[in-house]
Structures are given as C-alpha cells and as structure tokens.
Design goal:
Blueprint (H helix, E strand, L loop, with lengths): L2 H26 L22 H19 L16 E4 L4 E4 L2 E3 L5 H21 L2 H5 L2 H17 L2 H9 L4 H27 L4 H10 L4 H21 L1 H7 L2 H8 L6 E4 L1 H4 L22 H5 L19 H13 L6 E4 L1 H8 L11 H22 L4 E7 L6 E2 L5 E11 L5 E8 L5 E4 L9 E5 L4 E10 L9 E10 L4 E10 L5
Antiparallel strand pairs: 1-2, 2-3, 4-5, 6-8, 7-8, 8-12, 9-11, 9-13, 10-12, 13-14
Helix pairs in contact: 2-5, 3-16, 5-7, 5-9, 7-9
Length: about 500
C-alpha cells in the first residue's frame, strides 16, 4: 500500500467523521431540540431543624414584625404634625423617622443612608460571605415563609415531590388551591403594609376596608402583591440565581479569608457509603448521603465548593450535623469556615480567622467616616432655611424718578416643631425702600411669623435710588433671615439688576 493510499484512506475517514459530527450538530440544533433556556426543575427543600434553622426562624419573626408593625407605631410631634413614627409624606414633601424630619432639600441624608447600607453590605460580605442573603434579604424571608406554608399544607419533602408527580385529583386540587390562597393573603398583606408607610396607617386601613381609598393605593397593593406572590412563591431560588446582581458582585468583596459555609474536604474526602461497624481509617467522614443537598433551598451541593447560588443560610450544616451525630462522627463537617483554613489544615498548620484584613479595615473606615459625617450634620443642622428667586419678567422696573425696583420671591422654611418669628433683612446695596408685600410697615428687619413645620412665601420689592445705582449692569445683594431665640442665621446671595448699561 502506497503512502498516498494511506493518506487518501485517512482523509476519507476524517471526512466521514466530520460528516457524522455535522449530522449530530444538525440534530442537536434542529428546531425540535433547540431550547432558549433550561426548564426549571422544582426544588423541594427538606424541612430541617437545628441551630441555623432556629436563627432563620428568629430573623424571619423579627424582620416581618418590623415590616408589618412599624407603620402603626405612633410618635408625638406636636399639633398639626403627623403622629406616625415612620412616614413618607409625599403630599407635604416630608420624610419622618421618629424624631428626625427630612425635607426635600436634605435628600443628601437619604444618599448617606444608601452609602451606609452599601458599605455595610460590603463589610459583612468580606467578613462572613452572603450572610445578608441567607438571613435578612426580603426574598429569603418571604420565600421561607411561603415554603413553610407549603410544608404545612402539602407535607414533607417526599410528600411534595409525590404530589407534583401525581395526577390531578380532588385532594391535590384542594391542597394546591389552599396553598396559593394563603400565599395570596400574605402577598396582599405585604403590599398593604407597604402603602401604610406613605399614608396614615389607621386612616388608610379604614379607607381600604370601606372602598374609599384612592385608585393609586389599590393599584400599588395589587402590584406589590403580585410581585411578592411571584417572587416568593413561584420563582424562589431563580430570583437569587438569575435576577439578583449581588451574587455576581459579592465575589469581588470576598477572599480566601471570608467566613462562609464550607465543606471541609480535608476531613470529608474520600467520601463513600459506610456500613455500621466498618473502620473509618483511609476514608473521609462524608458518607455521600446527600442530606445537605436535600436541605438546601437553592438545590446545590455544597461539596462542589463555592458557588454563585449559595446564600450562606447554613441549613446544610444542620442537615450534616444530624448525620454526623447518627454515625458517631464529629459535627461540623460542613461549617462556617474559610478556604484558607482548609489549606492550612492540609499543610498541618494551625487554623485561624483573620477578621482584620486590608479590605475589611477599609470598609470599616469608610463606614465610620460616613456615619460620623452624617451624625455631625444631623446634630448641627439648621432649623431655618430660605430660598430667594429674582423676578425675570420683567427683569427690573424703572420708576418715574429714575429709581429701579427689583422683585423677589422669598421662601422661609421653619424646620422645627414650633412656630417662630423670623427677622428678614437686605444688605449689600444702599436701598431706598424694601417692601414686603402684605406687611403694613417698611421697617427693616421685617418680622415674619412662620408656623411650625411650614413654608411661608412672601414677595419682596427692593428699590434703589438713581444716584445709588452705580454703573454696573447688576449689583450683589444679600438676603439674611435670623431666628433670634436660638440665634440661627441663614444668608442667601442674589443680584440686583440696575438697568444701567455696562
């Protein structure tokens, strides 16, 4: 056989192989087999008891109590002020939080709170991984609540799996309808509680029950009820895996020293089935029972290492501890640990937890600085404020004797809970007359009474004699408001259009 013959045959075999590959690819990519996404495999976590499950129950009780009850807490702010402790009052442009009252121009406090929340999340993640996700995230809390309802109605994990596969019968219909009805009740209660934060809760509750509430309130309750029912009851773990951006971000916040739910492979491997009485030498403590997988609400196997889906809830720790107790092995084969400690144990080194690291100290420093700045500004915030807007149409008015008059709209803000008298004055330019529309006297400073927690708007006309106008096209003037009782002063600069060409 010649070399060319061998090459020809090899080439023919290669072409045949490529043809088979193309046929397989075509079959795989055919319209009948092509799918845009992987269908969801329902996850039925096993009801688990243990330390971390008890912590999750406690966190659920605390967080849900805060969410549902806070709108009903009262806080006395004096007459003509709302007595709801936490209230976002869009109608009067206020945000009330117990003794703190935030006005629209103080939105930087909200920005500061968002920064504090973000940095706190970064710090917690650097120290303990996705602890927020596992215990306090609203998605986790409501999903746990909905799974608890499902368990009470449909039974344990095996019963729920069998019910899914069973044909539709009267018993299955009753259980499913009952479950979804209770889910909807919790969802509506969730939406209802949310709108209470934007209205006086007792008043709105009466309006909702009597059908006299606004369409907007009913609409928001419906929207929030739908999202709660969909995310907590139907989508569950898919929200954490596909919709939430935090799993993708948190990897940048963690390192090998972060304390996360970890399978201690140095102790568990090699894994395998174990019979009672068999020796434990030359094998690991993991008996491959998959109880950790059955207890996981995300449906993952923690033994595969760190994964995007893991929310660090610790339920797999409880499940594994139960098994270890039954087979006479030490607990915490799965535990809150670090990747660095596993490497240290493999090397025979002593384990340790390094909470003070450059990234954690940086996050803590930012947290302290932002908190200090916010506390300082809150403690020293003024309870008076003023805005001054000059008339633009007309820009100025020339009087018969050559004097020029400018008009201004002055808004005085009383940010305290008691009525006060403000003294308004104008300086920086020799004026012939300063007239506050509505006051009988032109004596400066003008005394203006502003009710508690209110804004008073006045028109001020400033007139300058022709001889004092100067040559500039405009002159600088200053409006000053003083609150003499507490000695607070607020000054705002403006311009006076002289009408004289430059």
């Amino acid at each position: 056989m010649t070399a060319h013959t061998v090459i020809d045959r090899l080439g023919g075999g290669q072409q045949a192989a490529e043809g088979v590959a193309r046929s397989d690819a075509q079959a795989t990519n055919s319209a009948a087999n092509r799918k845009l996404y992987k269908p969801r495999v329902p996850i039925h976590p096993r009801e688990q008891d243990g330390v971390y499950r008890k912590i999750k129950w406690a966190m659920m009780a605390v967080t849900l109590s805060i969410y549902y009850l806070i709108p009903w807490v009262r806080w006395d702010r004096g007459p003509d002020a709302p007595d709801q402790a936490v209230l976002v009052d869009f109608a009067h442009q206020r945000f009330y939080f117990f003794f703190i009252e935030i006005w629209p121009q103080e939105v930087y406090y909200i920005t500061g709170l968002l920064i504090l929340a973000a940095v706190s999340l970064f710090l917690v993640n650097a120290l303990f991984g996705r602890l927020w996700c596992g215990y306090s995230c609203p998605q986790t809390v409501w999903t746990d609540l909905f799974i608890w309802v499902e368990t009470k109605i449909e039974g344990d994990r095996n019963a729920r799996i069998k019910l899914d596969a069973a044909p539709w019968t009267a018993n299955k219909i009753v259980k499913r309808v009952s479950k979804h009805a209770i889910w909807l009740m919790f969802a509506v209660a969730t939406g209802g509680a949310w709108v209470f934060y934007y209205n006086d809760a007792p008043t709105l509750l009466h309006q909702l029950l009597t059908g006299t509430a606004s369409i907007g309130n009913y609409a928001f309750i419906g929207i929030l009820a739908f999202t709660t029912y969909s995310l907590g009851g139907l989508m569950r773990e898919q929200v954490c895996t596909y919709m939430c951006p935090w799993p993708r971000i948190q990897a940048a916040m963690s390192d090998k020293e972060s304390l996360t739910v970890t399978y201690r492979s140095d102790r568990g491997e090699p894994r395998g089935a174990h019979k009672k009485g068999d020796p434990w030498e030359d094998r690991g403590s993991c008996i491959d029972c998959n109880q950790c997988v059955a207890a996981c609400p995300m449906g993952i196997d923690i033994r595969d290492g760190a994964q995007l889906e893991c929310i660090n809830c610790g339920l797999c720790i409880d499940a594994c501890d139960d098994v270890m107790k039954k087979i006479g092995q030490p607990a915490r084969l799965i535990a809150y640990d670090t990747d660095a400690n596993i490497q240290r144990r493999l090397k025979g080194e002593k384990t340790r937890f390094r909470f003070l690291r450059p990234r954690t100290m940086f996050y803590a420093a930012v947290l302290v600085i932002v908190s200090a700045v916010m506390l300082f500004t809150l403690a020293t915030r003024r309870t008076i404020d003023m805005d001054v807007l000059r008339d633009r149409n007309p820009n100025y008015v020339t009087l018969a004797d050559g004097a020029v008059r400018n008009g201004y709209t002055v808004k005085l803000l009383n940010l305290s809970s008691s009525a006060r008298d403000f003294h308004l004055a104008v300086s920086g330019l020799k004026t012939r007359e300063v007239k506050v529309i509505g006051l009988e006297t032109d004596i400066m400073p003008a005394i203006l009474h502003v009710p508690a927690d209110k804004v008073r708007t006045v028109r001020v006309l400033v007139t300058v004699a022709k001889a004092d106008l100067g040559t500039a096209g405009s002159r600088d003037i200053t409006f000053t408001v003083t609150e003499p009782v507490h000695g607070q002063v607020r000054a705002v600069g403006q311009v006076f259009a002289t009408g004289v060409a430059q």
